């Protein structure tokens, strides 16, 4: 086709050790269109954009600008080609003024002295033209996240970029700000600028995009015209029909309430808003309840509050009949809460400790492992050896292996062994299979189901819809810090879940 | 199968690497020192210069050796102080100030209260610990960098102690004639406060070689035990290596930071007690321009030992060895500070010894590592085979 | 009173110069705890130059050359810190501490080598550095320091270099993403701190006396300058104010015995202690919103974005 493409990424393949993040992906961006890039977490969207922005070099494939092949080795090359990017995590200097942030790197100057007057004029003109309200003299640390994003956009415009990449731009915005952003994007389109819009929120795609390229697990799932498609169709392409991992499990027999969450609210001081809003639910013995949702919708903050890593702003937590709202982390642990943390490197493990020391991380103070303050090394070794054997944790030097040198899967197995073997009443598992290979995933799923069958209450947090559907007995969808729906995995579909996760639908009183 | 053997070789491997890295730093330091000697006076650089530094106290044995041991004792303690804080991820640059407070505590108990030596030592440790706990408190509750606070408290401590001792020349602990604190061995009243020497002074023909060195070594072992054998040490190390994981495991990291600094301070204070109660020297309250060098040399000692308590004993002996060696340099040819120069270079190299360590590791143990890496897939393959059957 | 002003200015300018040096380094993202050592190196290099220059040389040249030599020595010495902390990504605090210890040893070895007496004392004439206005005897470092203060302010806030430097200390990833070479800027920051710190060292030693014993180094002035820098919130004119505040106490310590203050019977130790106690109290109150560059002390790795 002799179409007018401004950027073409043809047959891009990018491999990381053990995983093909992009497998023969083609993306063609027309001049003056809003092109959405849709996919689940880990589908390869960010990798593809990093290739376009010069952060990664692909193993195969080429990039064309206006039909000519170009090499993009670093962000400077990308800038020179008129490609700008609003990163998901803003790259702004907080204690600088808005204006300083915009001109940084391309400062107008005379003999090295800054000439801000003309820069200000240009910024104000751009701000006027596209309706990007900013105060050029305000410090970035003092302005709202929405305005920070406008600063990032102005950075691209100030550099006269023609191809604008937005990496999940709406994740941090309020609904009103999202509407504004959509309007701004339409303005760019009118100006003839081309936009790549990375997202997994279907409503936004339907609202603003012209076309949409879908990725799934690193593979190209096609490009569709928005006017010829529906949300359901997009959702199906995004999550796929084929469920690969099947876990054999019997129907659940829920028993007594183990965890009772009542009206929990958590305020985030940095983002100046409630990131968890009035969340209430119960988890019973012998069932797996899954908290599903797209990353950044308050799941992490909720778990921090639940496990004691941060304080609640309001609400009450009851574990097995005991009020634990104000208990310490250690006390919650003693009361029977096991916690497989989201980030195994940050919270889950002391990477430079030996495996045995990590295995007793939650128990070293128990009488079994210490006497008068002295660690009973023989008992620790015995216990560690037993867990390694029982849970099949593989390592170079057994109990004495430095955990840093172990594979991710075995690190995770060690955490799971540690938390499960403590025999908790409630097991909180946050993304327990993140970044692991199929074998390890299967193993971990089996362990979690086994815990349920032993009568434990399990609260699972997962971003993977496959995992959610396979593992859980009950699904709660979290969106923007609220629980927007409760589902039975046997009667729902991933498509339906996808709509709720993307904020397109909501159960309950406020149903529209 | 061979788990025990493997594990022993792994811990051995890491200590061998540490020792080799330290030796490499020492070697380069000595080499640069030798070049400086050659630059200053090439004719005497070898025999009168380099060899004397290397021989250390043995140039004038047994006196020199006794001196070496007397100086090594407090150095072990300040080294332990810095090393202990390192284990909790803290940099105790305040050992000098804690040492100063310890000196005051020891001397006050000895001169004013005429208490027995072990009580004096204990008080020295308590005062030093207090002085260390303050920066720990600021770190834990105000999140102020302990380095800055420690530096401030170094100087506050120095001026405070000088003021308490000097009192415009009228202080009861102050000897106007010597412009120092009263000499403990010149007055039989203070005999009970002197650390016993059990004949060591006679053996080494000195008057300050006491059992201090053995006390210091014993404390080093004690610290090793605390760090490696107790739940407390376990917690401290967890906080030092990964504060977030420690918190996740329910460890109170604020409490541990303060405790760690308090203990580090106590060790430095104890070191001051060992020094002044052995009467190696007396405190000079008129010196208000420099902090006791023992505190800063403790940093060298700890770095050289990779913060290993037992290693601290040896690195303190080494630093003391070359500095006594430096003092035997003939001032006709060379400044005695050459040895300080050498230890300065050694610490600078230690600052990035991690780099050396990596290099040594890959150079020496490349083969061993290969087998270790292979160990995992091999056993995995075995496992699947079994399962297949 | 005149005496108090004189001492305050002399000492305050020293603290300010060195603190400005520290400021440049920290704004680039490198904690420079080696200021004390850099002062010593600058001092010994400058003083040595002073002793070697022919007496016939014009005072202006004497001043100029010795200051330049001191600055150069400071720059070279600070490169050791830059190399260790930027290229080798060593712990900046430990590297700086090592350089402090090393500096005194180097200074003593050098001064002993060059002095006639074989001690670490060097004798020199400070006459070229001094001038009087209406009975107030000042050193050339006072006007020089004030000029450098203004220049520092302009460089930091009015030039492209300053903007980029500060970006590297606050958010190196952001600087990198807009094409700024973080390593280069950090080298620049450390080098500036070497030059200013070394000139500060010379300014500390030369004006008050005609002989200096390098065994005492610079007696903690470099550490005090660090406190001044923090107290001054990493801003040039605040640093000037903080330096003068600290210097008043130091001057009081010097002249306490000869003035009305003698009636208080406070010893110099108490005056010496005050600025440290004051800055501790201020630190505790301002810690919640510290103005410290956010990325200081963290080695920048191009790989981790």
UniProtKB/TrEMBL annotation, chain B:
- Check the record and name the InterPro entries matching this protein: ABC_transp_permease
**Which UniProt keywords are given for this protein, alphabetically ordered?**
Cell membrane, Membrane, Transmembrane, Transmembrane helix
Q: Kindly state one GO CC term assigned in the UniProt record.
A: plasma membrane
Organism domain of life: Bacteria
Q: Which residues cross the membrane?
A: 69-86, 107-134, 209-227, 257-277, 298-318, 338-356
Q: What is its main location?
A: membrane
What this protein is called in its record is: ABC transporter permease
Please give, as recorded in its UniProt entry, the membrane topology of this protein. Answer: Multi-pass membrane protein
The UniProt GO MF terms for this protein read: transmembrane transporter activity
Q: CDD domains of this UniProt entry?
A: TM_PBP1_transp_TpRbsC_like
Localization of this protein? Cell membrane
TrEMBL record, chain C:
Q: Give compartment(s).
A: Cell membrane
Keywords of the record:
Cell membrane, Membrane, Transmembrane, Transmembrane helix
Kindly list the residue ranges recorded as spanning the membrane: 6-24, 31-53, 59-82, 94-114, 129-156, 187-206, 212-232, 239-256, 268-286
InterPro entries to which the protein is assigned, alphabetical = ABC_transp_permease
Q: Does the keyword Repeat apply?
A: no
What GO terms are given for molecular function? transmembrane transporter activity
Pfam families, per database record? BPD_transp_2
Query: What's the chief localization of this chain?
Result: membrane
**Source organism superkingdom:** Bacteria
Membrane-topology descriptor: Multi-pass membrane protein
Q: Which GO CC terms are listed, alphabetically?
A: plasma membrane
Query: Which PANTHER family does UniProt cross-reference here?
Result: GUANOSINE ABC TRANSPORTER PERMEASE PROTEIN NUPQ, SUGAR ABC TRANSPORTER INTEGRAL MEMBRANE PROTEIN-RELATED
| Full protein name | ABC transporter permease
Which source organism?
Faecalibacterium prausnitzii
